[in-house]
């Protein structure tokens, strides 16, 4: 839901428009995540390429200005949205723990690049026929 190359400025990040964080006291939306200062584990994608990411399921600490806006009427407090964080663009997120490390990203671009760089196997090579 958020990714940036290591050492890149905040405005180079790519993120979801908004996310919902939750704990035992309730839920809050997080806005402007793409402008957040994020501290998390570095992920190596190659010898000279590294990035940092936030994933669904990460346990995080979020620091930002809270704007109260209560949504919902459920008696269970964990199901209520109490407000939003980060509306002013000042947002800090730190990853405390990650339950399962994310799988290496297999993107269509990466798969196509690997397919072009490796010669086709005999089963995949086009067969010439003479008639």
Automatic annotation (TrEMBL):
<feature type="compositionally biased region" description="Low complexity">
    <location>
        <begin position="111"/>
        <end position="131"/>
    </location>
</feature>
<feature type="region of interest" description="Disordered">
    <location>
        <begin position="96"/>
        <end position="131"/>
    </location>
</feature>
<protein>
    <submittedName>
        <fullName>Uncharacterized protein</fullName>
    </submittedName>
</protein>
